[in-house]
Amino acid sequence: MNLKDKYIEFFFCLGHKHIPSAPVVPENDPSVLFNTAGMQPLIPYLMGEKHPYGTRLVDYQKCIRTNDLDEIGDLTHHTFFEMLGNWSLGDYFKKESISWSFEFLTDVLKIPVERLAVTVYAGDDKVPYDKEAHDLWKNLGISEGHIASTTEDNFWAAGETGPCGTDTEIFYFRSDDEVPERFDTEDDRWVEIWNNVFMEFNRTKDGTIENLPNKNVDTGMGYERVVAVLEGKNDNYTSSLWEDVIKLIEEISGKSYTGNEESMRIIADHIRTAVFISADDAGIKPSNKDQGYILRRLIRRAIRHAKKLDIDINSDWDERIALLIIDKYKKYYEELERNKSVVLENIKNEKIKFNKTLEKGLKEFEKKSDKDIDADTAFHLYDTFGFPIELTIELAKEKGLNVDLDGFNTKFKEHQELSRTASQGKFKGGLAGDSEIETRYHTATHLLNAALKITVSPDIHQMGSNITTERMRFDFNCDHKLTPEEIKATEDLVNKWIEEDLPVHKEEMTKEEAVNSGAECRFIEKYPDIVTVYFVGDVSKELCGGPHVSHTGEIGHFKIKKEEASSAGVRRIKAIIE
Ligand code: SER
Fold first, then answer.
1. In the chain, how many domains are there?
2. Residue 544 pLDDT grade (very low, low, confident, very high; cuts 50, 70, 90)
3. Angle between the 389-398 and 290-308 helix axes, to the nearest 10 degrees?
4. Maximum C-alpha span of the chain
5. Which residue among 58, 83, 170, 200 has the greatest number of ligand 1 atoms within 8 angstroms of its CB, and so is best to mutate?
6. Which site from 22, 261, 331, 531 is most exposed, i.e. has the minimal number of CB atoms within 10 Å?
7. pLDDT, tens only, 436-456
8. 101 lies in which domain range?
9. Is the dihedral of CA 511, 23, 546, 537 positive or negative?
């Protein structure tokens, strides 16, 4: 059994429900492009909302971090990774969490206790030293010399505001050297493998720490790192997790990993992440915006490194790697198989696009690379040849040149501003075609959200939504399949409001005013200080960026086509307007 399965089974036997991984593209949190930690989809529950699966949860979560794209290629960084985690939502706390982690590591994974060390919270003027955690570890057999304490590394928060708490980090001694008696957090032979956060606080905007309704536990273990560590590998890409992918790249390129590590790691990592982004039901396509732009950059950078390895770009090298990744992971993530053709198409189309300009762009770069790359050249490479900035930086680095990144960023922003104004102009000139129907769907979403609270339960909240010109999709928390009566009542209520031709208007207010007015909002802490609230008659109040119709009569007849499960405790409605 691999580590992932062992982890799930261990906590399952301790009464934890296995919850499915949330999508990598968060459906209900516009403030981040991707899910970056196992706990992220669980924030509402850590804040006190009831989770439909109960108070003990375990999962492996797809995560993507792209803030350090240029570090990919080294020994340990990945843009995509899986995080194993177990949670207590107001159930057990420090004692069980620490002793179960210890049991899993020493009994299940058979790690000798002397190879383990931990840190606990050292204490400051707000939160005291975590003596309890210290004593628990000590009683389990971790020697005094292997227990260190810090303040900065032993406090974990999801962001500037929101759930947070002190943590205890667990380290493993990865080296053939003799294990030192004293654990030194600066000694990189000690590698962090697990983080147990005792999430009992909420940090508010002004930095105040207040108690959460529950004392929770949030733990996270980076899967690829721990597999590598336990296999004694310094280079994650030589662990059993990557073996087959690297072997395939060696085969395709006819080159060996040794001597070509950087390019092979980048190809392996970027294609894997591109596969996972493309397979997500959010339907992300390579583009110049948000997640689509990350996807584009990943594919383009992988292509450039394939070229560096003299791989024939026009061959099916990308498809072979993507298929291997789909095969490897589909047992855990069924969407990979389900959306396989979309994944392959995304990569292929982007390859065709980039291939058209790559060669010319490289020539252009050669021409300009007799000196440092100025902002105009970097922008020209981006705008005309589709070179993401990190690609230009990478090419420059190989020649020992600098790039005027600040200058590029200024130009890039100006350019974005221009295209935004252009598209807004179009919008103001009349919501023609696609936009108009999407706007009608958008207002219908608010009505559906409000109707469900009346026809099904006042506790219902939007968990996600997606609008196309053909239909709307609306996800909401609910512990049961809607009955035909509930569906009918919901549909009728929405249509009644449409027939009443209710006026829609918006108001700007402070977040506090919005909350006090009872406006529907999720993740309030992620919004700016001044928010827009849309009112539909007096039936709906929601924080939203718009746009919306001016009267509900413009929406048309509303019809629910389907009601189905979306994920644990989350139902999905697909509806159309006619
Ligand atoms: N939230 C913590 C982390 O991401 C533990 O899950 O490390």
1. 4
2. confident
3. 30
4. 78
5. 83
6. 331
7. 788 899 999 999 999 999 999
8. 3-236
9. negative
Q: Ligand 1 centre and the CA of 149: distance in Å? A: 18
**Which atom of ligand 1 is found nearest the CA of 158?**
1
Instruction: Specify whether 299 is located in the same domain as 416.
Output: no
- The average confidence (pLDDT) of the chain is 91
Task: At 76, list the tokens.
Answer: 């340990």
For residue 36, which atom of ligand 1 is closest to its CA? Answer: 4
pLDDT tens track for 322-372: 999 999 999 999 999 999 999 999 999 999 999 989 989 999 999 999 999
Q: Which two tokens stand for residue 563?
A: 């009601």
Q: Which two tokens stand for residue 321?
A: 């790697």
Whether residue 198 is found in the same domain as residue 74 = yes
431 part of a folded domain = no
- Conformation bin of residue 69: beta by default, left when phi > 0, alpha when psi is -120 to 50: alpha
The answer on 570 and 496 residing in a single domain is yes
Q: Which of 531, 522, 536, 527 is nearest to 463 (CA)?
A: 522
CA distance 375 to 404: 5
Give the pLDDT confidence score for residue 528 in this predicted structure: 61
Pairing of strands 147-150, 116-121: parallel
Return d(Cα 545, Cα 472) in angstroms, integer. 17
Most ligand 1 atoms within 8 A of CB, residue of 62, 154, 219, 221 to mutate: 219
Which residue puts its alpha carbon closest to atom 7 of ligand 1?
220
Residues 219 and 262 in one domain: no
Residues 563, 473 contacting (CB under 8 angstroms): no
Ligand 1 surroundings by CB, under 6 angstroms: 37-39, 85, 156, 195, 197, 218-220
Domain boundary among 380, 406, 425: 425
Q: Do 35 and 89 lie in a common domain?
A: yes
Cβ atoms of residues 233 and 218 within 8 Å:
no
> Which residue CA neighbors atom 4 of ligand 1 most closely?
37
